[in-house]
Structures are given as structure tokens and as C-alpha cells.
Amino acid sequence: xxxxxxxxxxxxxxxxxxxxxxxxxxxxxxxxxxxxxxxxxxxxxxxxxxxxxxxxxxxxxxxxxxxxxxxxxxxxxxxxxxxxxxxxxxxxxxxxxxxxxxxxxxxxxxxxxxxxxxxxxxxxxxxxxxxxxxxxxxxxxxxxxxxxxxxxxxxxxxxxxxxxxxxxxxxxxxxxxxxxxxxxxxxxxxxxxxxxxxxxxxxxxxxxxxxxxxxxxxxxxxxxxxxxxxxxxxxxxxxxxxxxxxxxxxxxxxxxxxxxxxxxxxxxxxxxxxxxxxxxxxxxxxxxxxxxxxxxxxxxxxxxxxxxxxxxxxxxxxxxxxxxxxxxxxxxxxxxxxxxxxxxxxxxxxxxxxxxxxxxxxxxxxxxxxxxxxxxxxxxxxxxxxxxxxxxxxxxxxxxxxxxxxxxxxxxxxxxxxxxxxxxxxxxxxxxxxxxxxxxxxxxxxxxxxxxxxxxxxxxxxxxxxxxxxxxxxxxxxxxxxxxxxxxxxxxxxxxxxxxxxxx
Length: 504
Description:
Blueprint: H1 3-18, H2 25-29, H3 65-69, E1 72-74, E2 80-89, E3 109-117, E4 119-128, H4 129-135, H5 141-163, E5 177-181, E6 190-199, H6 201-206, E7 216-220, E8 226-230, E9 240-244, E10 250-254, E11 263-269, E12 275-280, E13 284-287, H7 315-320, E14 327-330, H8 351-364, E15 370-373, H9 375-386, E16 413-416, E17 424-430, E18 439-442, E19 457-469, E20 476-489, E21 496-499
Parallel strand pairs: 1-19, 14-21, 15-17
Antiparallel strand pairs: 2-3, 4-20, 5-10, 6-9, 6-11, 7-8, 10-13, 11-12, 15-18, 16-17, 18-21, 19-20
Organism: Methylocystis heyeri
Protein name: Phage major capsid protein
């Protein structure tokens, strides 16, 4: 055997020894016979690297189309924006014919004064010292707090621009009308009491059967002060009762439509113990089972808290207010619990939308340019137009690609036939905050010569967005994002609102 062969045999023996666990019984008794490392089964235990990408990913939607597109202009002090408008010339319809050598009659001009009060808006966020320490090397937590505070303020401002209600109380909700049936549900024999609460934009979008609806809100602020304001619920109705024959009983409930209401909360049960069971976008309901919510009607104050005096009026409120001049229509009640959906005209259009457009042309000689809808109405409008029939005037654009056929059709525009210069195309846009059952139409220009209106509506600010880093009072950095502004709409008649639209 050569020296080289002896060396190779030794190396092979060492490798074999290192690849096997030590079998010494003395090490086994100490639990040390397995001396090699194995991969941990947990990402946060053992000698295992933690592969974390630096910087938090932001995966929450910041959808603010109205805020992004609405012009922002600077105010000039004062507590409100004020303007005057000429609303009619020759308001009395004076005839023009004159006799020889004589002068004509004097025309009458109608004017109106308008104002919109400034409101402060804002919210706060904070970062404690330990959060900053913990984020070192991963993310700038203080910068994140400032940015997310601004984004949250923009999201809140978007909702205000659409549906803020500072000046339109809904009043007392009408008493429901009930009808009982021995079939169609699971109600037991007994007397059922039903109470209804009309909801403004705030009340509808923030209410749920599980969490209840908000009436009077008392908010404790960061500085220790408090604000009391309305959460969007009108004063509750009186209770209506009906006798039910069980065990398969059901009840239908309807309430007179409330102008300005975008939804209705329904409470039912034994008299005095009515609980929240449904929130609807129409003014009726079919009750087939006991209420599933825990909020009781008795817990709501006997007062109207549908508006919030701390905010400015949004587009929906400006249009819905009595005397605004805007086109406002509510769908008929129809069958209780079913309601009245939009109606196809059989020619590629929607009856209710055409009625609004025709009325606007007949009264103010202009057209909106955008139809804002909820996803429910976007789908329903598409279905109504596609149901137009063989005689409907429709245009389809196909992008033909080999082996590529896409399903689904969505209508993105609507042709207004009531225009002096021929058809005018309106954009149909889904708004993230638009309540189901409501359609809003807006215009961004006034077609009248020398109108003096550059922006039909705009955000007028005494002070635009600003951020404050407050002086330290604890081991916490505190930030506030604020603005002082109002939504100024020069010509509310250029808007149209259709409410109480059933799904279908």
C-alpha cells in the first residue's frame, strides 16, 4: 500500500464519520447525539434569517375622483363665500311688439343672493417613540403617519364633496304602513311593531345591521375637547303595529318617501323592544323573520340628527334641498320590499334618465355631462340598454384578436337626445361613495354666453391643506392634517338626482 492510498483511506474515514451522528452513549444521555443543524419549521425561530422587504406596502384604496377633478380656489377672508346671480331676464315674458312712435315695456330681471359658509375639516395621527425605534431600518414611521393622515383627510373630503349635509335636516320619519300575511316568512303569531328611521348620506353609508345606525354623536377630540353632531339619522317614526298569524307569517312595510333621504333603517319586534333588522335604499321592506340586529329603536333619541353642522353641504345635499332648482325625482314605492327599478325604454335608453335630461333641457336649456352611479346602478343601466330589442340604436365596438373573446358588457356613456346641437354624450362613472339606489348628474360648464362662471362648482378655501406637528407633551409625535374650505356651487339647477331606485 502506498502512502497516497493510506492518506485517501484516512480522508474517506473522516468524511464518513462527519456525516453520521455521534453514537457515544454518554452524549446520548445528554441529548447531544444529534449535533447537526436542521431547518427550522418557523420563520421566526431557530438560526433562521427573516427575509423581510424594507418599507410597508400600501394596499388600501385612495379613490377621490371628485376631489381630484374639482377646482380649488383661494377665498378672501370672511366667514362665508357670497355671490349674486341673475337667474332670469325678461322674467315676466314681456311681449316685444310696439306701436308706432312709442317705446316698449320694461323687462323684469330676477336676481338671487347665495352664500356658503366655510368649515374646518381635519383629523389627527400620532407615532410614539417606541414605534419609531422599532421601525428603524424598516420604514420611516413618522413620514408614513403624515402621508396616511393626508390621504385619510382626502378620502373623508371626497365623501363630503359628494354627500356632506350641514344644513338639510330630514325631520320626523313618517309612520310606516304595514300589511300582514300568514305566508312567506317565519314570523310567529303575535303583534309586530315597526319603526322606521330615514337616513341621510352619512347615516346610510356608515350604518349597518351589525353595528347600528348613528344619530347623535359625541366625539372626544385629541385635545380633550368634545364635539356633538349628527350622524345621519332622522327622528324615528312612531311605531306601527299589525297582527301576524304564524308560524309562517310575514309583513310588508312602506313609508312615504322623505326628500333628502338616501336610505331607511327598519326596527321591528314587540312594542317597546323593536330591534334593527334591515337598512334599505328604498322606502319599503318585506319582513320575514325576527330582527337580527342588537340596536333598539328605544336607544335612539327622539330628535333629528340627520345633518352635521360641522361640515359643508355636498353636491347631493345642494341638489336635494328644497328650492335648489335641481331636477329631483324619487322612484315610486311599487311593490313593498321590491320597489321600482329603472325602466328600459325599448330603444336603447332608460326612461328615468331621459325624463331628467328632457326636463333639464325644457327648463334651463342645458345638459349635464357626467352621470355618477353606484356599482348597482352601473350594472342595471347596462342591462336596461342591452334589453332595448332589435330596434334599439346601439353601437358595439369589437377588438377581434385570434383566440381571444371577452365576456361582459358595460355601458360607459349615455346619449342625451335633448340638445340644440344634436346628441350629447354623457360619461357614466361609478363613484366609490355613491349610495346604492341613487343617481347624480353634474355639469362642469355653463353653455350660456358671458355667464361669468368659470367653474360650475369649486372648493373655495380660506386655507388649503396644512399639517401641524404639535409640540411634544408625551413621548409621542402628534400630527394634524387640516383645511378650511367650502364647496361652492354656482348653478344647482345644472344637477339632477334620482333616488329610491330598486335593484333590478
